[in-house]
Amino acid sequence: MKKFTLGDVCQKASSNIAQKDLLERTGKYPVFGASGFIKNIDFYHQKEEYIAIVKDGSGIGRTMLLPAYSSVIGTMQYLIPTKKYDIDIRYLYYAILYMNLSKYYSGSAIPHIYFRDYKIEPINIPCINKQKKISKKLNSIDVLIELRKKQLLKLDILVKSRFIEMFGDPITNNLGWEQAELCEATNKIGSGATPRGGKVSYSKEGIALIRSMNVHNGRFEYKDLAHITDEQARRLDNVIVEEDDVFINITGASVSRSCIVPKDVLPARVNQHVAIIRCISNKLHPIFANIMFLHDRFKKYLLDIGENGGATRQAITKQQLEALTVILPPIDLQNQFASFVQQVDKSK
Question: Which helix or strand (DSSP H or E) is residue 12 part of?
Fold first, then answer.
């Protein structure tokens, strides 16, 4: 097996395609952006399969394997294997995915990465047959992952459908349930703070510090979970996380995302971007509350509050959370729904 750098085995090429220039163009050749397929147009840049990297803006470092006779817009760049070495394009793609090129970002207003910086990444190049064997196995894993994602999506849709069937629209309250402000059905609503020193003060282990990047729609993301010392945690004793607490992101682009705390991250605290919602057990079930927050109409309601809540960024205040009008069906019915959700979760 030979060792090279990324710059040894591929070369970069740029795109001058602006998305605004595509409005009037139609055709049969796909063009891609940072989020994937944009549209078909009447020309192409690459006549062979290639790798594309997001080099500017949101999603920098994201890597895609794209088809022949297609193009990317100018916020991305092409990586083309050199003819000097016998390289399987799919092997190269998976190798670059592993490199995590986003770590080379620079710039604060609009982040970007440069080939001149990340081309130093080391890469092992086995014989072509071994490359193809490795890439085939990884591709099979990708297929299974995509299939699993589709299954999970169907289960999420099933839960949302059951919620609507049992409780109707939580905003219009078309089934006429009792209503109350959220503060009347909870015994805690509050957010924390970032320890002095920010990221550099975090520990490799200790008390979990839950941030907005950990709170996703209906799920907890363990990646980049921070930890703080016992002393730092004592300064955040007003936001001690308890079992069955519901989280809502209250600032930034992820505002309104919500999930329930997993037991295995306790003990924990939250920072200032995440609010704890602690339900009163005989009024509001946490599973019911979380699915209600995730309901399309309720989420739009939260997003609208967030859009109007900050001068420079989206924000929901504690007072706005406390004043949210929520439906309160009989707790026995909420418990029945929660049991259904827990059974569905066993299939995940």
Answer: strand 10-14
What DSSP string runs through 274-305? EEEEEE-TTT--HHHHHHHHHSHHHHHHHHHH
Token readout for 281 is 């057990």
Q: How is residue 254 written in tokens?
A: 């992820």
Tokens of 326: 């929520």
3-state DSSP assignment of residue 268:
strand
Structure tokens at 151: 């299954």
Report the candidate in 321, 198, 186, 325 with the shortest Cα–Cα distance to residue 250.
321
**C-alpha span between 86 and 279 (Å, rounded):** 60
Other C-beta atoms closer than 10 Å to the C-beta of 201 total 14
Q: pTM for the complete prediction?
A: 0.69
Q: What is the pLDDT of residues 61-100, one digit of tens each?
A: 999 999 999 999 999 999 999 988 899 999 999 999 999 8
Structural domains in the chain plus CATH codes: 2-139 (3.90.220.20), 156-345 (3.90.220.20)
In angstroms, rounded to a whole number, what is the distance separating the alpha carbons of residues 132 and 136? 6
